[in-house]
Amino acid sequence: MDALERIRELTVESRSKILLLVMDGLGGLPMTPGGPTELEAAHTPNMDALAARSICGMSTPIAPGIAPGSGPAHLALFGYDPLRYEIGRGVLEALGIGFDLQPQDIAARGNFCTLDPETGVITDRRAGRIPTEVSARLCAKLRAIQLPGVQVFVEPVKEYRFVLVLRGEGLEDGLTETDPQQVGKPPLPVYPTRPEAARTAELLNQWMAQARKLLADEYPANGCNLRGMAKDPGLPKMPDIYRMRCAAIATYPMYRGVAKLAGMDVLPTGETLEDEVETLKAHWSEYDFFFFHVKKTDSAGEDGDFQRKVEVIEHVDRVLPDILALGPDVVIITGDHATPALWKAHSWHELPVLLWSRYICPDDVTQFGERACMRGGLGHIRHVDLMPLAMACAGRLTKFGA
Amino acid sequence: MDALERIRELTVESRSKILLLVMDGLGGLPMTPGGPTELEAAHTPNMDALAARSICGMSTPIAPGIAPGSGPAHLALFGYDPLRYEIGRGVLEALGIGFDLQPQDIAARGNFCTLDPETGVITDRRAGRIPTEVSARLCAKLRAIQLPGVQVFVEPVKEYRFVLVLRGEGLEDGLTETDPQQVGKPPLPVYPTRPEAARTAELLNQWMAQARKLLADEYPANGCNLRGMAKDPGLPKMPDIYRMRCAAIATYPMYRGVAKLAGMDVLPTGETLEDEVETLKAHWSEYDFFFFHVKKTDSAGEDGDFQRKVEVIEHVDRVLPDILALGPDVVIITGDHATPALWKAHSWHELPVLLWSRYICPDDVTQFGERACMRGGLGHIRHVDLMPLAMACAGRLTKFGA
Fold first, then answer.
1. Alpha-carbon separation of residue B75 from A146, A369, B59, B229, B276 (angstroms)
2. Which of residues 353-372 of A touch B (CB under 8 A)?
3. ipTM, interface predicted TM-score of the complex
4. Which of A149, B16, B106, B277 is the most interior residue, by most CB within 10 Å?
5. Quick one: pLDDT band at residue B402, thresholds 50, 70, 90?
6. Which residues from chain A sit within 8 angstroms of residue B389, using beta carbons?
7. Model pTM greater than 0.90?
8. Which pLDDT tens digit goes with each residue over A320-358?
9. Which residues does chain A have within 8 Å of residue B387's beta carbon, measured at their own beta carbons?
């Protein structure tokens, strides 16, 4: 039995509230040998005080050495085994631009590319990284393509990337990508990997043929590729598994989208951390579980901006008292993965986690940071274990066996 | 999906270099209550200085309580799940004497035994532990046996042990052993456990019948048994999985053999640690991954010689600066398993591991030893997790999921 299925069977109702505060890409590294990590460098008196009353540790998002994308890292935080439950790339790309994906839609990530006009082989898989405005104009052009029996959506993402969504009856995933992953070869036809997907493959091939004609007089983006064709994975929904009313507060479309796939109510909120806190306050009485997402730690890490990441963490620390004043019964603070400014990308490192509830045994950790949490009482755990721990502390899990 | 398969899918190329330094049987125990372990007693200023810049921990070779043989312990270090990938005993025995095993060969471990001349039942399963020289003479005698359509090799190992290898088309494993595992019973016929192995079983039974005749006038080794009949397990090869040029530097045939099965290039080297370091230097530019094996820590542990094991560790410490001067990007120092002098055999204990790279968060450990590493930032991991961590630190793994 899947661990999630076991948790579902043990779940009981309660009036307790759980807050999962995720600073995206929280984990860091010393920028210089002997120096502090971002979280260690940040002045975080409120988190430190909470850590002193909490049990802390280090958590691995997926498995040792594996740097996760945002999809699997968040699924793990929500209690889904990220190696079993996967969200396809096309779906994530659609969620990332806030596209209102329906359960039967097929979504693909599109990449504009440059083709040799004579031979049709790819000469640049990213079409010289055309600006997003150019991509937006090309997407508008591609919206002219019609396919029998389905609705077609084409939306720009960023630079050479776009999203293609087909909507209609009987669309199936199980489709190969057109991108040959190297220059000097032409885009490949889409093949079905399951017989049920044959018609969908044929529709995508028709779309590709028409796109090629429409783009023929463009340059450098005179072609395109489709990757990661996928449907909503039909995850078990958190309200069913955990018997909680679950809400997500996140400013970025991707995280709002993943939360929606997991069955959370995605609350309207503003752009700032203060907006998110106000949203939390406004809906506090309506939900049992809140996923509260902070994006800018990750963005700063991706930019290699150690100091900006420190400042985002300090900003979160300043709003923490307002959050705690709402009186959650269980608080988890962690990140989805590490994004060390030194590495400038998602990384594989374990990252600090703090678990507070009336029903934990506090350890000796008095600072929320990598080195301190390495010595924490939670030891080294996996993200997927956090929800069961939170549920247990919230009095929402009954005994296993007699 | 197997974790190794997942790693293979995430592997990208890089110019970074990984060094895996394995002191065989490194892990130890206090010889007297309150005393130090072998590694703690050793004066290791270079390892300690490296530990201070590294992340350390304790690693379990296979699973708690399981003392591994050299085969599974090394497979785990190389990233293979040792419970899934097994090297048959016959193959390990052949590798241990440096036999040049071919992929289609069937290798068996042979044991000379004493039979009751009247009844044919076994009276001593080890033939009174006859000296190796006697075994060598008997093996020469057994080389007279010919079988239809296959080449036959018989090689002495040590005392009553020998290796039998059949080479030819269509040989298959899936064979029962002849050893009834108790005295008072005769050697058993070889049975196939799969239909494809029927001919191989028949050939081995012919060989056993002829061996019995040839040994009839010998004593005490007037019979023999065959165990662990096996073929090269056809492991996925490290250069394919990890996209690295992989080299092994080891003085003992067994480790050279296991490295070869894993797809490494086994470099010619001499008998001493200094020879091994020279080999490393000479080939540094040609490979991305080096498995550097030190045997004598294990031999000293097996002999129960605490002080000699300390001295071998100190010897390794003295050559460490020369190794580090080559500029590896990632260094792992550990053992394949513990061989505490107190236990005089391979044991099940966790053993210290040190991971250095520019991209780790150093912990507070400043001494490379059991007690210090128990408090290390890596926590308690498994050998099989070391290669993914090394690959990640080396920038050789891409993100999982989007």
1. 55, 35, 14, 20, 21
2. 370-371
3. 0.91
4. B106
5. confident
6. 64-65, 348
7. yes
8. 999 999 999 999 999 999 999 999 999 999 999 999 999
9. 65
